[in-house]
Design a protein that fits this description.
Layout: H1 2-37, E1 49-54, H2 63-74, E2 80-85, H3 94-110, E3 116-120, H4 122-130, H5 132-135, E4 141-146, H6 149-155, E5 161-165, H7 170-180, E6 186-191, H8 195-206, E7 215-220, H9 226-234, E8 240-244, H10 258-268, E9 273-275, E10 287-291, H11 293-308, E11 324-329, H12 330-335, E12 348-350, H13 356-359, H14 361-387, H15 392-442, H16 452-465, E13 469-476, H17 479-486, H18 488-505, E14 511-517, E15 520-526, H19 535-542, E16 548-550, E17 553-555, E18 559-565, H20 573-589, E19 595-597, H21 600-621, E20 625-634, E21 640-649, H22 656-663, H23 668-689, E22 697-700, H24 711-722, E23 729-733, H25 742-754, E24 758-764, E25 781-784, H26 786-792, H27 799-810, E26 814-818, H28 823-831, E27 836-838, H29 848-853
Parallel strand pairs: 1-2, 1-3, 3-4, 4-5, 6-7, 6-8, 8-9, 11-12, 18-19, 21-22, 22-23, 23-24, 24-25, 25-26, 26-27
Antiparallel strand pairs: 10-11, 13-15, 13-18, 14-15, 16-17, 20-21, 20-27
Length: 859
């Protein structure tokens, strides 16, 4: 009987311990955990869709913190968050923007409808503003981490847009650095010539006036090689404060990630290095005050929450203060003997060692209380058990209850087993889907060709294996015009049909095809030297000999191809792809539908065009253009009857045919067109003021300027402002303006005529010249190109020129012949009845002042 009673004592004791544990867990759940995570009713947010457009890639340093802040703000709601990445840090190119636009437009047309848009960083805001009416009509948009404060405030004037800027806490960081280094005499900033670096440089020197008595100096990484940068870092004196703002490139155009830049700074400096942006703190930099990307994401997402609850976007002001936080590395503070008492109280200090008790204080105190509670309950249970040890009947009842509990546990175990079997079956299903998921990740959804990611992995494999291969970058010519003229459905069919034909060639194991994006394809041919008549190259060209059929209509397409070979000079897949890309653009410049092999000059030419683009942008913003005027002489009288205005760069000896072609690749040509027009009209007003009799002036109008929809109105207002007769303005156009824009071109011509200006057809005899155009283009003059003069205005061939002059006169038009440089040419053209002569025989282009002093040549 005694043994049985002891057995029950142990059973009751064990049960009591379990009860104490359950009681403590319940207390913790209800009083601590439940309060922390209890969900708030969010019925008004049910089934809401929010799209987050990030300017960068998923691996960019700030993105994880931004996402953490957004998710914290959305916690407890049913909001579904989708994310799209523009990747503008790696691909700041128009082609990438176009590809992202087409991808997003497709998803918006075929995917969920969004209730709000989050815009991370400047590129996302600019993209959303540019495509608001098309992609996001009447959808609330909240931006954050915007560097350009003025742009942010301007964007906030839109009734559907609000958000917050990303403040740069440079002054606060300099102030704390002066606190840490009171003996400092120099304040040095490290920056470069990138777009970010240019902004950093301006911000740094804007603070110079606030620190009188200190030497402000900059170290421009883009101006030095890596060795020179290292030498200058080592030479910094002890009385210097060094602030790392941007270091993404050096003079050799080597590119550096933040981690690589930090490694250089830590290795070659013997003074603290301060930071005003993310990256480097914890890796050797002392720190500073910088934007809290987590708080920025939280603030923007909170604005979205308010909007989804019913707040009006227009009532939420743009936040211009930013979300900042001091961050410092304890080990670096200790290294330079900087006392913690100097650190701001609200600063985050990392790498600070803490005691075992400090580290586990939050765990040890509840654990100690739990143990004391267990001991207390144990004493009570033992006392109660001793008091009632002889009550065997009650013990038996307790035994029965425990048996019942065990039976329930057995039932629960059976349910757990069933759940385990279900999870196992689900895992088996997931395993069966792996191959499908991998296929989707490595292939383009539209064409089913391998995608860019798979192609780059293929290139890296071939390079690692040392195999010989050639790369072709193929681009469909005038693809944008296909989309604009026949619709995106037709464009998609062109891409799919091209891909189907490439897939047929992939039966050859030496041939590999992929879609890079947009209308670009990457082809890899292993173990082959591609001569112009090689079999595989011929097969590739033949896929464009058959038309693409869409809606029962045949459409022929063409492509431009660039070819590059792998050799020991190629570092990686990205470089050989870039080489082939250079060659492809060279093929485009040759007139399209060409195949060009890469050479080193193409890269030089591309870099030269890049430099010219920078010069053009600078000239557009700093009054960097001026006009000269070449006389147009009456062939019969020899008197000057008009001028052609020609644009020149002020501070650079770059021929117009070079910088104009670069400007036509961007919107700069629109700016240049208006600058030239303004200068011409103002010059004519000045001539009149100086007593000069005004003669007509011809202004060149680029085919790309057809995108300037208000140019005619702009010209009209200029003429009215300066009281210049429209009849004194002649607009020179070329046939290319209506090759792909016939309806728009004809409307433009009509608008020009409606305000009273005349039209002339320039460069006749080159390019696409057709007599048919002269029957319906409302021009009053034809200008014969210099190339025809050089070829045909010679004995035995000049009948050709004579017949052209006769033909133009039969159409009731006047003709000007350009490029006349010899007396004999002038006399023959005069004999043929030519109306006007223009060329160096009479005068080279001259300034407006020289026009006033010009003497008419004798007959």
């Amino acid at each position: 009987m005694l043994k049985k009673e002891k057995k029950w004592e142990w059973i009751i004791l064990i049960g009591a311990i379990f009860l104490v544990f359950a009681l403590a867990a319940s207390i913790y759940y209800f009083f601590f955990y439940r309060q922390a995570v209890a969900p708030v009713s969010q019925d008004y947010l049910a089934a809401k869709q929010v799209l987050f457009i990030s300017s960068y890639s998923e691996s960019f340093e700030t993105l994880a913190l931004q996402k953490e802040g957004i998710q914290q703000a959305f916690k407890g709601s049913d909001i579904r968050l989708d994310i799209e990445y523009m990747d503008m840090k790696n691909y700041d190119q128009a082609a990438n923007l176009q590809l992202f636009y087409e991808m997003l437009r497709y998803k918006l047309e075929n995917g969920p409808k969004y209730d709000a848009i989050l815009l991370g960083d400047d590129a996302a805001l600019e993209f959303a503003e540019a495509h608001q009416q098309e992609l996001f009509p009447q959808i609330p948009m909240v931006f954050f981490c915007i560097n350009d404060k003025e742009h942010a405030v301007k964007a906030g004037e839109n009734p559907y847009i609000t958000g917050a800027v990303e403040a740069m806490y440079l002054k606060e960081t300099i102030d704390i650095a002066l606190t840490f280094q009171p003996k400092a005499k120099k304040i040095i900033a490290l920056y470069d010539d990138t777009l970010t670096g240019e902004g950093d440089r301006k911000l740094f020197y804007s603070l110079k006036g606030r620190y009188p008595g200190y030497h402000f100096g900059g170290l421009n990484a883009s101006s030095y090689t890596l060795d020179e940068i290292q030498q200058r870092l080592e030479a910094l004196s002890e009385d210097s404060i060094l602030i790392y703002m941007s270091f993404f490139e050096d003079a050799d155009k080597n590119q550096y990630a933040i981690k690589q830049s930090v490694e250089q700074l830590v290795s070659y400096t013997h003074i603290p290095v301060y930071r005003v942006s993310i990256g480097g703190v914890g890796e050797g930099l002392i720190g500073g005050k910088m934007t809290s990307y987590k708080n920025s994401g939280y603030l923007a997402a909170s604005m979205v929450m308010d909007i989804l609850k019913g707040a009006d976007v227009a009532d939420i002001p743009v936040s211009t203060e930013g979300e900042g936080q001091y961050y410092f590395d304890y080990e670096v503070l200790k290294k330079y003997d900087i006392k913690l008492s100097l650190v701001p109280k609200d600063a985050v200090v990392i790498n600070k060692k803490i005691t075992f008790l400090q580290e586990y204080r939050e765990v040890l105190i509840p654990l100690l209380l739990f143990v004391l509670a267990c001991l207390l309950v144990l004493l009570v249970v033992v006392a109660d058990n001793l008091k009632h040890r002889r009550l065997t009947r009650e013990a038996q009842a307790s035994h029965d209850k425990l048996q019942e509990t065990c039976n329930k546990l057995i039932g629960a175990e059976e349910k757990l087993k069933q759940q385990y079997d279900a999870i196992k079956a689900y895992n088996e299903y997931l395993e069966s889907q792996k191959e499908y998921i991998r296929y989707q990740a490595e292939h383009d959804f539209l064409t089913q060709l391998p995608n860019r990611r798979a192609a780059m992995e293929k290139l890296d494999q071939l390079i690692k294996a040392g195999e010989q291969f050639a790369v072709i970058v193929m681009d469909i010519d005038d693809f944008k015009e296909i989309n604009d003229s026949y619709g995106h459905a037709c464009g998609d069919e062109v891409l799919k049909e091209t891909s189907r034909r490439l897939l047929e060639l992939m039966s050859d194991k030496l041939f590999y095809a992929s879609r890079l994006g947009g209308d670009e394809f990457l082809l890899i041919i292993k173990k082959a030297k591609l001569e112009s008549d090689s079999k595989i190259l011929t097969q590739i060209k033949q896929i464009f000999t058959k038309p693409v059929v869409f809606e029962e209509k045949e459409r022929y397409i063409q492509s431009s191809m660039g070819i590059a070979y792998f050799d020991e000079h190629v570092a990686d897949g990205g470089e050989i792809l870039s080489n082939a890309d250079f060659a492809m653009y060279a093929a485009k410049n040759l007139g399209k539908n060409e195949c060009v092999y890469y050479n080193a000059h193409m890269k030089d030419e591309a870099l030269k065009r890049k430099d010219i683009k920078i010069i053009i942008d600078e000239a557009c913003n700093q009054d960097g253009f001026y006009c000269v005027y070449q006389p147009q002489v009456n062939a019969l009288t020899g008197l000057t009857e008009g001028y052609e205005a020609l644009v020149r760069l002020k501070d650079y000896d770059i021929p117009p045919n070079q910088f104009i072609s670069v400007a036509e690749e961007t919107k700069a040509i629109l700016t240049i067109g208006r600058l030239v027009t303004k200068q011409v009209v103002e010059q004519m007003a000045m001539w009149r003021q100086h007593g000069l009799e005004l003669r007509p002036v011809a202004i060149n109008f680029s085919s790309k300027q057809i995108k300037d929809k208000t140019y005619v109105q702009y010209l009209k207002e200029l003429l009215e402002e300066h009281q210049i007769s429209p009849e004194l303005i002649e607009i020179e156009i070329t046939e290319s303006i209506f090759m792909n824009n016939n309806e728009k071109a004809m409307k433009l011509f009509k608008d020009f005529l409606s305000i009273g200006v005349r039209l002339a057809l320039d460069d006749f005899g080159t390019g696409y010249s057709s007599i048919n155009y002269l029957t319906y283009i409302p021009v009053s003059k034809i200008k014969l190109d210099k190339s025809l003069v050089d070829i045909y205005l010679t004995p035995g061939k000049d009948t050709f020129i004579k017949n052209i002059i006769r033909l133009v006169h039969c159409l009731g038009l006047k003709i000007t012949v350009e490029g006349v440089e010899k007396k004999s040419q002038y006399h023959r053209l005069r004999k043929f009845g030519c109306d006007y002569i223009q060329g160096y025989y009479f005068s080279q282009p001259i300034t407006g002042k020289e026009v006033e002093d010009l003497k008419n040549p004798l007959k």
